[in-house]
Structures
1.
Amino acid sequence: MAWVWFHRFGSPPHFYRLATRLTPWFAWPAALLCLAGLIGGLVLAPPDYQQHDGFRIIYVHAPAAWLSLMVYVVMATSAAVGLVWRMTVAYAVSASCAVIGASFTALALATGMLYGRPMWGTYWEWDPRLTSELLLLFLYLGYLGLRNSIDDVGRADRASAVLAIVGVVNVPIIHYSVIWWNSLHQAPTVMKFGRPSMPASMLVPLLLMLAGFTAYFVALLLIRARGELLRRERNARWIAEALGAAATGKV
Amino acid sequence: MSGQRVGLAAATGALIARDLRLALRRSGDTLQPLGFFLVVTALFPLALDPQLSLLRDIAPAALWVGALLSSLLALDLLFREDAQDGALEQLALCGLPFQGLLLAKTAVHWLLTGLPLVLIAPLAAIALGAPYEAMPGILSAVLLGTLALSLIGAVGAGLTMSLKRNGSLLALLVLPLAVPVLIFGARATALAIAGEPLAAPLYLLAAFTVFSATLAPWALAAAVRIGLE
Amino acid sequence: MNELTADNLQMWRGEQHVLRGIGAAVAGGECLQITGGNGAGKTTLLRALCGLIPLEAGRICWRGRDIGQDLAAFHAELNYLGHDNGLKADLTAAENLRYAAALRRRVPAQDIATAMARTGVAEAAGQLLRHLSAGQRRRVALARLALTGGSLWVLDEPGSNLDASGHTLLLELIEAHLQSGGVAVVATHRALELPAAQLRSLTLQ
């Protein structure tokens, strides 16, 4: 029974319709959650004992960093699904994830550097988390670079799928090797936010932002995946029907 | 035409012999990465204050970065030429396990780029004042590290072999994946030169190399097959 | 019993629908001749038959079994000669043949010499391939073909760069292969001069 659902999900017209219907269900909650999180974090939460107001950037930095990793996993998983079951939809999802993930990574890096300036005194301190983010950015850029340099879409899909799978398996290894490397000279870790030690007034807006970012990612992914499918299947018949239905407002 | 089918071992032997013979015939191409390694590692001290103490600190880093870059240089040739003249296709169609054959080619790459480094490393270490007891440690680190570099690099070479000759994409693909080798390898070498126990990074490096050897054959075969389409 | 069948092969290359429902059947002792203009997809079809390119739809069966089920066994009986010779320019003709044989089956040294003599490149045995003419290199490739055998021959424009005697040699080799019960699939511009009973034709648009 689950297989039937799985294969229907993999059919482009079905996915297209589903994505079109679901997008508002993720987009609006994303906006609301982020708004609530920002108000909670920027306005309502009290200033930190040590870092005063500077810590507030964590409300953007932490969700961005978390999402940069999650998007890579989604990208690699959908690429693997595409490789094994030869599904266009899976490849379209994987391709759509790449730029989104790279942007989250860049955002995490930028906010991390902005956070570092008042805390460390410099913009860059080879902190293990930021260094890992930087390497993750390189992995994304490699994926995008490989995709762009292969003309044939099918081959680009398959080659970048192999790369994504190799990358996702290596990400934890790279991350832990960087932590190990950094632990050799006890540099002060900056983003010290352990869950237990954070009061609820700080933690709740953070979780709201995290949920908001995730919903935003899903909404953005659905929109991009639809565009990607349109581009790939533009000669197929279902496109004309789907767009015709959209024009009459029936999708 | 008669005779029984050839097994994988004999075929890989023939493949390795062929590739080594080709490398010998094109000795210029083969020696270039080595020359590049020597130039790069020689540049570091020139850019720094020539005090021996500082050089000793920098040396492991310079060695490993040089090894990484020269390995990249040799990678581009690994599959590209065979892909262009149809020899790689014949390899894919000969009915023997493709993973094994590609690993044989990777082994040749290691013999031509990694092995020289393994041989040079003790000499370089002695020049930097390393105690003789450190030699086994340094040798192991360089051996494991260059093996891992060859394996990871081969996957990158397989993915880019059918693209226009563009070293920077290959570097972008391989370097992030090679970071653990750099971190553990340089650390192990530095500890060895300082005469301190280097079990920790060495074991981690060994684990990473074993892991690469497990993942690389699949990724390599998949990448090359896609490139041959 | 040697037989190659292809059923409703569909393949896209990027945007192009290159193979549209191609079907064919060739039995032992027969040669399938594939003709078509430039860019019609002959090379793509041949490589798909070898299992090098994945198909969107369709089946290829060798001896009644889908080749996807045991690709290695299929390849063990397959001998492919592509546009490129599949030989290394920096090895001599003799070294190339020795290596090609070493990948497949154990052959005594005199078989290599015989194959080279048969294809008329015996004098060039000790020369690097890059010093030979295109026609001579093609002959060495034909020597490799004859040497390594296989029940199924897939040849992509085997006659390119060959002179008249080369073409005769090619036909002799194919004939001998068919006589021994083998199957041949040949993409070619000009029609093969084989007896009609042994020839099947497929034209690609």
2.
Amino acid sequence: MSSAASAPARPAVAPSSRDPGRPFVEVRNLRRVFDVSKPWLNRVLEGGDRQFLTAVADVSFDIASGETFALVGESGSGKSTVARMVVGLLPATAGEVHIDGVSMTNPAASAERQRLRRRIQMIFQDPYASLNPRWRVDRIVAEPIRAFRLIEGERAIRDRVGDLLGLVGLHPDDGAKYPHEFSGGQRQRIAIARALASDADFIVCDEPTSALDVSVQAQILNLMRDLQDRFGLTFLFISHNLAVVRHMASRIGVMYLGRIVEVSGGHELFAAPKHPYTRMLLDAVPDVAMTGKERIPVKGEIPNPITPPSGCPFNPRCPFANERCRAEVPPLLEGVACHAVHEGRIEKGLVAA
Amino acid sequence: MVDTAIVTSPAPKAPAAALRTRFFDSDLWASFKRSKVTMAAAFVTALFFAAAVLAGVLSPQNPFDPAQLELLNSRVPPLWESGGQAPFLLGTDQQGRDMLSAILYGLRISLVVGVLGVAFSATLGIALGLIAGYFGGAVDTVIMRIADVQLTFQAILIALLIDGVVKSVLGNQLDAGTVLGVLVFSIGLSFWVQYARTVRGSVMVEKNKDYVAAARLIGLPAPVIMVRHVLPNVLGPVLVIATINLALAVITEATLSFLGSGMPQTMPSLGTLIRIGNNFLFSGEWWIVAFPGIALAGLVLAINLLGDWLRDALNPRLR
Amino acid sequence: MTEPVLSVRDLRVEFVTRRGVLKAIDGISFDIARGEVLGVVGESGAGKSVTGAAVIGLIDPPGRIAAGEIRLSGERIDNLKPEAMRRVRGKRIGMIFQDPLTSLNPLYRVGHQLVETIQTHTNLSGAAARKRAIDLLAEVGIPAPERRIDGYPHEFSGGMRQRVVIALALCAEPELIIADEPTTALDVSVQAQIIALLERLGREHGTAIMLITHDMGVIAEAADRVAVMYSGRIAEIGPVRDVVRNPLHPYARGLMGAIPSLASEADRLVQIPGSMPRLSAIPPGCPFNPRCPHAWERCRVDRPEPIQHDVHRVACHLYDANDPSAEARRAQTHPPAEEGVPA
């Protein structure tokens, strides 16, 4: 399995943030803990302890302007929680997020944040729940324009909405319809039109095609890439589908149980995965082209995030785990968070072909 | 180059026409046509409403105008009985009031109180349900506990209580218009809970949906999101509750009037008429209580049947 | 040649609605041999779940089987009375649904549900049934089965629950198992385990498996043959390796190209314009014709019947030996056959 060096990684558009030294999006030590304790009365009567779910333990990464950074992982990895904290939909328990120099996490910066909001948008997983079923499409797409007062005058707004709908491959007259008159793929297009309506340059995509059929997915992914090339958009792309991520992203972070275990360039991750979890994941992906390949059997399942393992979160399933792995959490060094890799115990090489 | 992928239909029909055809095409209308009982109930309800609105035109006399009443005409039996006199189709009461007119005007009063009462309780209930569901936490707990406490009492008792409290504050000799207002207020306050609970449940489901997250993302303040985004999506069940509630409100008003706490004799509702007529039942003048009673029962039954059909027709699970 | 376990001929399933008759399945035919895994793949609305439901007799009004035959080991099962069908279901046909959470009754212990199913379909006594249940749990890979048999469904993780569901489906030694999206609700790493399990069980017990899914990757891993469905018909059916590497039907080709793969180097995914037609608006002729890059007048009028071409059976006029223009058109549009993806 070679293929890595031949195809170029997707080039990032030149950065345009205020401070050229600083990445466009900076996430540092992001953490989110949910209190999932039973109600107080139950605890008193049944004698239980408080329970906490650490959805995101400690996540840090950067995104350069114009690039597509993907967070990939299975359920319980915390990737969706990270996405929501980055855009400010969910408050962080700890850690910082800066977008173009403005803090998303510091409560004092709210005025600046409101100005920044125009430039951040999100595309959600479920096309059936992300559009208000009682609003007409033109009103949905126009909402960011009106909220940020970008255009004055009904006629002008209507024209802009028509342009946006055309941009995503729909007819301008579709604005008069309701969401339920459209298919899943078309609804995602409407969601993309809405995301573009405020001239956003940073778009967080939370599993945007997971609910769509394969052929529709192809249309939407192609559309997103075209729009990125045209408008210089920056994407944070969340997905559990490795093949999709490979197609879309220039850099990829692999998450497991609330931590990033490996960060790597798009094609590099697939050609030379380092972390044992990444290798296991790649091996497990049923892939169309790999018919007849022998698989290394996969052990176990993702542990309960309320009672995570001590030390490295992957240690119960890892064939290379030792005492140190059970005691210490490995730091993210050189793009991998794994003692075995740092200590040279695993031969850094290709996936078994 | 962006691929245009979908061949979408040309411009849609003008919205007005589309709505009409959509309605008559819909499952709701089909379900309505299928049920003879429902069609009858709807017809009867419409009839009652029309009668109430046109009371002034339809009634032979205005029963609230003392100048039109003559004691000579009192206790006249219905037209088809011996002793009946035109124009008193259904007879007269002890004051000489024409029963038909009294019923038509009484119907109007009953419906006014019912509709206004429902409007009041719906508004109050929806607002509280929205707030409780959207904000959750302590606000939710407080509102819901009040609701729970109120539910342990029968609506009638609550209405009586509120009625009594207000009258003790405002004094006992109130004119009929104020009494109407007090009735609307007390009935409204006793029925808000069901709206609030239903709306709260729907709100809690809707607020987790992504379109609400998208609105929050733009930075819209909570009240704007609640009213513009969430409210239209939680109003569905409200129509059903309101319809069934209307029947309940009419009965409650009738009960209150029957007990003497409601509309006075000078501007009687159907309940008041029944109360008055009750006194004359055993002296043989049955028409004074029977006709208002039949009218009330018919109205409530028709509204109830309509409400039942609506609930089943709008229930997505049964479809 | 031994008789196929499942034989479907010209099956038609319709839904009668106020607005007319909707054809969910419009004449499909296929076989599944003993020990074989047939993948039924298609996008939403193609009719694959309806096919599974039809075979197992779970089409409820207003849907009905309008025509065709379904034979299980030679006997017709599509025209059985409900009581007789109920006996067939469970004993001779097992079913695995998508969501393991709702397939198991949360109020009953797993062992109870297994034993109940075993005793319904066999003559085993309580103790023997329990022993068989433990053996089944071990066979599907549940560790410490003698302990876990007394657990409730919520005490199992998602992948484990799906294994229990598979064990339930195997209880009565069915001849055929229908698995409808068995891995869609599971994580990637668990998916691989479940697929491997299904494959192994098919081989070891000789059970025929009908694997319904929209995920082509799962099919490529687990299936021996695959049927690609479109708009209620089978567009192409053949051995999995051949259909995946060299799809003949334009839809199948578009589908393969649209799937992002870990190995392909394409910069753009192949895009099939438009979307599958609604049941109420299926075009005449070939249902794929509005979206097909190679369609010509015949396609808009004539409905293509399945034609044998090599090891594939494909419903496309391009492969009609009796059509004089077919070969030329084929040469124009068919790229040189890829000999498989470069390793």
